[in-house]
Design goal:
This protein is mainly β. The chain has a domain at 13-36 and 44-80. 0% of the residues lie in helices and 40% in strands. The chain has strands at 13-25, 41-51, 62-77. The protein has a three-stranded antiparallel beta sheet, with no helix packed on it. The radius of gyration is 24 Å and the shape is elongated.
């Protein structure tokens, strides 16, 4: 059931990890969170592929022949916003007031 995780060409950064175990026991229920942040704009991808583990593991349960592949990747993107320069002014907002 193991699949090979492929890298997307447009990723700027990627972190991958894998582990295997003949036997695995969690002494506490695990709490796992993944958060990817980027500025000004970003896209991210998180992939987990697991063999031998149910979606929700339980403490005290023995899991055998376990393998996990995990990958998180991100790509920076140019911001999509309009500046004063795009409208013909300057960034300081020093356009002369309209005559009136």
């Amino acid at each position: 059931m193991r699949r090979r995780m492929r890298r997307r060409r447009e990723d700027d950064v990627e972190i991958s990890a894998s582990f295997s175990a003949d036997e695995l026991v969690f002494h506490e229920d695990p709490v796992v969170r993944t958060r990817v942040r980027g500025w000004p704009e970003h896209e991210s991808l998180s992939v987990r592929e697991r063999d031998g583990l149910p979606w929700r593991v339980r403490s005290g349960q023995v899991y055998r022949n376990v393998h996990v592949d995990y990958r998180v990747a991100g790509a920076m993107r140019a911001p999509e916003f309009e500046t004063d320069l795009d409208r013909g002014g300057d960034e300081r907002g020093s356009e002369p007031p309209p005559n009136g």
